[in-house]
Each structure stands twice: as C-alpha cells, then as structure tokens.
Amino acid sequence: MEFEHVEGDLAKTLITEDELHAKLDELARQIESDYQGKDLLLVGVLRGAVMVMADLARALNRHIEMDWMAVSSYGSGTVSSGVVRILKDLDSDLTGRNVLIVEDIIDSGLTLSWLKANLESRGAASVEICTMLRKPDALKVEVDVKYCGFDIPNEFVIGYGLDYAEQYRNMRGIGVLAPHVYQ
Ligand SMILES: O=P(O)(O)OC[C@H]1O[C@H](OP(=O)(O)OP(=O)(O)O)[C@H](O)[C@@H]1O
Ligand SMILES: Nc1nc2[nH]cnc2c(=O)[nH]1
Predict the structure, then answer these.
(1) Could you tell me the EC number(s) of this protein (predicted)?
(2) Which of 2, 42, 110, 131 has the most crowded Cβ, counting Cβ within 10 A?
C-alpha cells in the first residue's frame, strides 16, 4: 500500500505512482524528439521538483545537465503569497543554453511566470517549462507550458515532492489533503 502511513490524512488519491511514471515516459519521448541535436539543461526548482527531476532525468535517453534553484512563494501555508524570493540561485551560466525548467506544480502560475522571465533575461537560447501538475482553475497569470503531465482540480495536493508543512513529500503518488489536517 503506497499511502498506508498517511491514509487518514488523505481526502482522496488523485494520481498513482504508476500513472506518474507512465506520464513521465511519455513526456521524455516528446522532449527527446524536440531537443534532438541540441544541448539540454534541466533546471529543477527546489524543493518540490526533486522527485520529478530525478525520474524525468532517468527517463531521458540522452545527455542532459542538471542545475537547481530554490525559490519560495508559499512559506508554510497553502496559498501563494505572490512574492517570489530566490533562496538559491543557479551555478550555471545560461548564455546560449537550452533550458528546461522542471517543476512539480503550477498553481496560480505566479512562481513560474516570474521564473521563466528571470531565466530568459540571462541570455538562454530557449527557456521552456515541464510541470507534472497544473491547476487550470487556479491560474492568475498566463504561463506558457510546453510539457504538462496532468491538469488537476483546484484543490491542495500532496505527495511526489509536494508538501504540507514539509510533510508528505515522500508519498509515492499524489493525493488531496483532508481539510481536517490543516483547518
Ligand atoms: O503557481 P504557483 O501558485 O506560484 O505555485 C507553484 C509553486 O509552488 C510550489 O513550491 P513551494 O513554494 O510550495 O515550495 P517547495 O517547492 O519548496 O515546496 C511549486 O513547487 C511551485 O514552485
Ligand atoms: N503541496 C502543495 N504545494 C503547492 N504549491 C502550489 N500549489 C500547491 C499544492 O496544491 N500543494
């Protein structure tokens, strides 16, 4: 049972581990085809994207580089503050690079629209976004997403890198947190 230790904290299971991995394989084939003959720098956004990054990188049958940024707009709450702070910047020079931002979720879109513009301003040849989840009903700004795993309802989700107050990131699938946990 993949959710055994958190079962009482979940309102429902949304996406299973198998479904996540099948989707990652699909995305990896598209990315391989789109970036044929080009360099590829995967930029993971800490901390939530750690699981997607690790699994996507291994699903790709090609050379890649990885770098990491840490930004924060949520603190320990469940609603975006809208203010994005860089907690850790990239080590790489982006000049002329093909950058693929790897994310776990696009919710309001505030983090990713800010981050994409920020990386584009550093002279990259291209900056695209790959996100495992997106909430179309929660978007406050348009974000141009090239690769999206699943569109999900506007509910607070946990698992596969996504936390509530730093818990649940190691859940293998994705679920909706029961309101009694945070109310
Ligand atoms: O579209 P938005 O409303 O801006 O939300 C998306 C952001 O929220 C999550 O990160 P969070 O700030 O929770 O930090 P974490 O990755 O360290 O958990 C997620 O990883 C995105 O970066
Ligand atoms: N854990 C979690 N983090 C988020 N950050 C933005 N949206 C979400 C969400 O639904 N769940």
Answers:
(1) 2.4.2.8
(2) 131
Is ligand 1 within 6 A of the CB of residue 161?
A: no
107 is catalytic: yes
Asked if residue 163 has its Cβ within 6 Å of ligand 2, the reply is yes
Q: pTM to 2 decimals?
A: 0.93
Distance, in Å, from the CA atom of 128 to the CA atom of 144, rounded to the nearest integer, reads: 8
Written as one string, the DSSP assignment of 5-72 is: GGGGGEEEEEE-HHHHHHHHHHHHHHHHHHTTTS--EEEEEETTTHHHHHHHHHH--S--EEEEEEEE
Domains defined along the chain, listed by start: 18-153 (3.40.50.2020)
